Design the sequence.
């Protein structure tokens, strides 16, 4: 177990008792599941049903008041595993799960598999006792049992997982993860059913990226805290910029597959420009067009005497630009096809020259137009599979370099007389393990407690669902959503696979529509907002409010 | 004036009323200055006295209770200017100053010069009314009147400043700044005295770097808040690292001339390694030795199965390494001497080759040993004076590249079998404009109020001094320290200049001695502390505690 000297805040915040939704308050003995109609997957129903014959079409579950002491009689053993990247509140999922189980029956036991799903395959776990849990309540991080990225997919892995769960006499397994990890939870649930093994598998929706949501899951946990931390930093930078008035700041924010984080941070801070990957893709913008759009803004502000500003950039921007996605894909192929020949060339310049000849002219020209540093990153930084590591590309620096070049041209042509001095930032790891906000502390505790109730009721193949999140936590609505219901078939690494559909920023959705309405004013009028750090004590207006995204989706009006 | 939509926190925190030291509580009419003995400068007394004949040797001022209604009778006009980099609490200095003046006489007026000292020369200012002040109380940033880096030094600048101060019928000028700005405040005070102009000049000690302190100034404002913000981020990264257990994080922290910030953040977070520039200099370490020291730790932790860790690096490290300082200086000279010849060469490789021949062999070898990216930064990133821009050098990336090379050698030799995957961060701008902590909100308000009292009592050439800072703010001790008292003569840009002596990390001082005692345990035992975000409400233990550095200097024991 990791040791740590508790900070003062950790000690004080440890005393916070999350507020449960009313329906769960008296404990699992007073909650009964109510089954809805049979469900179907969001798309590709026939294929998904074929892959998940035993877990497809399950009814949605909602919880209602009622005597359910029966499910509390027998003592049960439950395993929990944290899967994928960290998100604030993971420890409170475990705390809620533990408290729900213990409330049902003091003899119930909770076990944490260590280091992610590989802990199930390797049978590494620890019992989560109330004493062990104590120092981790309302804390950030996954360090209680750590996390990992292993997927349990091969026949050998599945068999090992089954054997270990049986050997340890587990009655249920709770998988805390994002879309991929919850898809995997469903694979395990289906496998166990097929094998006639009576062990429930329940998922919990986690990811700071905010891209695991749908009509039944209003948000994934961690998104609220992470965006508040990034917004604190962006707000501080805005205030610095607005005081010094001599720099343009380019801030890249985590979130590769979707731009929800960038959008939410923009709502909280009102930057001068914000790039949304999904919009760039929908408009089929070229890199040059993205750059020119920013250059236009810089020139416009310079004319108003404002040689400063702030731009938010989503981490995944590059892949949303069609021509860049094409280039990366072509580079991946060319680098793999000519590995031997490339190895014989000693300098990067020679390698680049060699590869340029192998690319279609359009892409070679694009590659040539990139700043040298970025072109090198595209050539050199490759993952163990030989692919370009998109997450390492410093898009904010790429944009700055290309903007500088364009501004120099405009200056030469007498069309720009301002000054452009840029500072770049990237925020990602800073937000994944922060102390969970009151919203996330309550939400994760409820998700965990709710997962305990689902497990006790023998539900399997469900995602723990807590809804009505813009209301007070007492009024949240609890239940379970069949995992298959959220699935469709996607092509991954050349194979058709059933996966939980990723929620991208919808251009017709309320959040983006709001941005479209307000961003012109942000661009020129300097309407910066400085949110400051997350508060855990004090007036409810500073401690309890959740994301603007959730509020807009719930139909609230935002200034 | 900048517009902004106030955040919820800004609105709530705006209501906070800073707690004044008891001595100031009843207002300037009830405080009398008590003069101490004549003072002398910390060094070079004869030279400093010669340069400041009218402001040298002034007695230290302390405040005692007593009837002083006389100084409140006549209405006065006071100017305030923010100088240099932003620091949290600047607005509260202005708020304290305004309240102190208005308490003395409702007709007193405060004016803010805009955009730093150039606002005095250009006569640009705004009246700071209570209504204008309202939205800025307890906020971060300098955006109320902005800041700038102009020094008022030439005869023309000094004359323009004098004329504008006279034209606007100013009775006093308050300069909020770091060591250089306060040196400049003394230059202005001396000039006005020499010219027979009866306008007081008072300084206020500002800098997040923490390097403006001495026996009379326990700390500069902003250091507390900035280090708390950086510590929040470093703590979050530690928790992420301790959850994922697969990365080494290298965090560079602002603070070029001194390593106080890095030291304080280390005290708050217990990283595995922390580099202190002053120690590197004292031990005359080479870059290779710095790298090897970290490599030893990485190898040691890998043997214990820990392929993760965190290292804090002060921004100014490079200049503390004697051979690197020599290289940068030689490069500055060589690049200047051969500017024309270099301009004719087209590629960076050619330029580098050319310059290497001009360097002494030892330095050329050092340059060759640097990673390509860093060598390019040294060649390309130059300030308007043609000097290498040390603050742009990504020291954390330099270290990572050199560590990788060394680890590869060790791996080849069979002496290392671990994995090394590194992530780098730089935090600076994120902390300069944060919402001031309760300590900084109180401290800056007291410094401003105290400056008003000094001004009303016609003190000139003094720094506003508030001491006893580890006690409750009611018990703080107020007064004024002659600016010349803190001066010595230093060589700046080839000239002997009187300057306020910069406070470096003292290797025999209590803070560093404490680090020396505890760091071995931090290196291997993973004693990480996760401080979390600054809290403005809630238990005093999370809102009111100031820096570990101040506590250690005051003789407190720290775990």
Sequence:
């Amino acid at each position: 177990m990791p040791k740590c000297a508790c900070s003062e805040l950790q000690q004080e915040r440890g005393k916070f008792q999350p507020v449960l939704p009313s329906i769960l308050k008296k404990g699992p003995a007073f909650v009964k599941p109510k089954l809805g109609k049979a469900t179907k997957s969001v798309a590709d129903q026939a294929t998904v049903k074929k892959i998940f014959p035993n877990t497809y079409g399950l009814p949605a579950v909602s919880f209602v008041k009622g005597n359910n002491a029966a499910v509390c009689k027998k003592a049960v053993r439950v395993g929990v595993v944290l899967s994928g990247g960290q998100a604030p509140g993971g420890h409170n999922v475990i705390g809620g799960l533990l408290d729900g189980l213990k409330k049902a029956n003091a003899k119930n036991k909770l076990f944490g598999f260590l280091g992610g799903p590989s802990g199930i395959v390797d049978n590494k776990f620890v019992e989560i006792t109330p004493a062990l849990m104590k120092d981790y309540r309302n804390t950030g991080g996954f360090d209680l049992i750590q996390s990992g990225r292993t997927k349990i997919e091969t026949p050998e892995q599945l068999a090992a997982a089954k054997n270990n769960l049986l050997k340890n006499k587990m009655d249920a397994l709770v998988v805390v993860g994002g879309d991929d990890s919850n898809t995997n939870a469903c694979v395990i649930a289906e496998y166990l059913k097929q094998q006639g093994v009576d062990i429930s598998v329940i998922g919990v929706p986690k990811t700071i990226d905010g891209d695991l949501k749908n009509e039944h899951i209003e948000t994934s946990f961690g998104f609220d805290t992470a965006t508040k931390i990034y917004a604190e930093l962006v707000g501080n930078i805005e205030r610095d910029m607005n005081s010094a008035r001599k720099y343009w700041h380019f801030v890249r924010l985590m979130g590769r597959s979707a731009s929800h984080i960038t959008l939410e941070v923009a709502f909280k801070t009102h930057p001068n420009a914000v790039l949304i990957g999904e919009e760039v893709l929908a408009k089929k913008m070229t890199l040059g067009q993205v750059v020119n759009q920013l250059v236009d803004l810089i020139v416009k502000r310079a004319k108003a005497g404002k040689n400063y500003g702030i731009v938010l950039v989503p981490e995944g921007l590059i892949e949303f630009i069609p021509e860049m996605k094409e280039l990366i894909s072509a580079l991946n192929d060319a680098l793999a096809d000519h590995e031997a020949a490339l190895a014989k060339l000693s300098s990067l310049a020679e390698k680049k020259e060699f590869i340029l000849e192998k690319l279609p002219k359009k892409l070679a020209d694009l590659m040539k137009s990139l700043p040298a540093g970025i072109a090198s990153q595209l050539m050199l930084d490759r993952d163990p599979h030989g692919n370009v590591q998109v997450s390492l590309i410093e898009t904010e620096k790429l944009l700055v370099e290309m903007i500088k070049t364009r501004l120099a041209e405009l200056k030469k042509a007498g069309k720009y007389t301002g000054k452009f001095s840029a500072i770049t930032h990237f925020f990602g790891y800073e937000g994944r393990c922060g102390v969970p906000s009151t919203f996330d502390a309550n939400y994760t505790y409820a998700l965990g407690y709710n997962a305990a109730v689902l497990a006790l009721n023998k539900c399997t193949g469900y995602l723990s669902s807590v809804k009505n999140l813009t209301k007070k936590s007492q009024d949240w609505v609890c239940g379970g959503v069949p995992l298959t219901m959220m699935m469709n078939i996607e092509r991954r690494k050349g194979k058709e696979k059933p996966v939980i559909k990723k929620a991208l920023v919808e251009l017709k959705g309320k959040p983006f529509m709001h941005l479209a309405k307000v961003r012109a004013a942000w661009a020129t009028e300097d309407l910066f907002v400085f949110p400051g750090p997350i508060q855990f004590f004090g007036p409810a207006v500073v401690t309890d409010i959740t994301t603007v995204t959730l509020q807009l989706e719930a139909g609230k009006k935002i200034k």
Observations:
- The CA atoms of residues 29 and 69 of chain A lie 4 Å apart.
- Chain A touches chain B through 65 residues (CB under 8 Å).
- The two ends of chain A are 47 Å apart (CA to CA).
